[in-house]
Amino acid sequence: AISACEKGGVWRRSLELLGAMGQARVEAGTIPYNAAISACEKGAEWSQALELLNTMGHLRVAADTITYSTAMSACEKALQWQQALALLHEMPRLGLQADEIAHSAVLGACENAGAWDWGLHIIEAMLQATLETDGMAYGSVINGMKRAGLWERAWATFERARRAWAADWRPQGLELREACPEPAGTPGDNVPRILRESPGLIAVSKLPGVTTEDTLDQLRSSLLASGREGHVTAVSRLDLQTSGVLVAALGGEASGAAQAARAQFAGRLVSKVYLCVCHGEPLGPAGHRGKISARLSRSRAERDDHDGGVGDHRVAVSPRGQEAQTSYRVLEAYTSPDGRVFSYLRVQPRTGRRHQIRVHLASIGRPIVADGLYDPLHSQMDSAWCRRLFLHCHRVALRDLLGGSSAVEAPLPPDLAGALDVLRAS
PPR repeat positions in this chain (predicted)? Predict the structure, then answer.
């Protein structure tokens, strides 16, 4: 029962069940306490999680690595980096060895608080303990440096790690190749069009209605069929109905190519530009720039069945959510014959949260055209002239495994270009 509460994040009920076990003189062991702490972590109740951990000590209930990792994760979400760090230092005293998950939780807490110097200490400790220090770990520290305004140090830290990851790199085949300009693919295509290859990276044009996973599976099959290695690792995602540039690493999960790319995405060193059309009064004249800052969290009240039916949760603005920032520039504005107003925007997500652009624009009354998930009211009317979500990843820029600049662009596909022509004609 407590495990069910854990999965639903119903932390109060999990505490009640633990109390009931005590009243019934049923001994609660490590597993029920871990489940209750996890429920507190999911409910953003870090103080309750730590109180349960203290109770375990008083009752002589053995804590394990999972106990501490979960408690540290609760501290991470609440920006309690010093508490998380204290728990990490407490583990050896109890004979517990902190694993990669525990260290990652503390790194995340330090990142959120801008305590990048402690993050570097943690990475050093991981290296000494021969734990895997992957791109996500370095990206966490790099982002902390950026938040503190230390851009040069952030890039220097990435470069040191990149050179180490590139030491064993060998090309899979013809890399540093850029596709010749041609119209974007159509939904009937079976293989994603390769936009560019550079050392350790490959960028393709993702089609709407195809998941990121299926896109990369098709790419792997295509590479194998051409006599090349099929090692391709996802380092970013696009929503099901979003088209445009999708970057992947040319290498396996543990490859230097994957780590270098992940470090850049986690460290927010990647520049991404999207194009979208949204409802509502213009946010300003053409050329006007603005920023949306609102924390985001996954909602458990409603499942997301509009993005592939994989059971992912919707996302909502929440003061307890993760930090999220989106910048935009107004390109054009239109008024339809029936009086509805639309804006064509160039959008840059400064953080990489799920559905970030869609939720941020909807939160200020500017939902994206044909977004059935976050604006079902307008979506039905939109379908007459725009048959899917008007969101396209136009440009992605990052560094390849050898340090070269890799910027990739994908033009609007025919379906969205046609929808834009309809607005311009009106």
Answer: 64-98
Beta strands in 79-228 (DSSP E): 177-178, 193-198, 201-206
Partner residues linked to 177 by β-bridges: 197
Element (H, E) at 341: strand 341-349
Question: Which one of 71, 98, 133 terminates a domain?
Answer: 133
Establish if 2 belongs to a structural domain: yes
CATH of the domain at 33: 1.25.40.10
Residues 6+ apart with CB under 8 A from 220: 230, 231, 232
Q: Rounded distance, CA 313 to CA 319, Å?
A: 17
pLDDT tens digits, 346-376: 999 999 999 999 999 999 999 999 999 999 9
Contact 330, 315 (CB under 8 A): no
What is the C-alpha separation between 120 and 161, in angstroms, rounded? 12
Strand partners, 293: 325
In a domain, 107, yes or no: yes
| Residue ranges of the chain with per-residue pLDDT less than 50 | 176, 180-188, 301-306, 308-312
pTM listed for this prediction: 0.83
381 in a domain, yes or no? Answer: yes
**What's the domain range around 398?**
269-296+321-425
Q: Is residue 217 part of a domain?
A: no
Amino acid at 348: Q
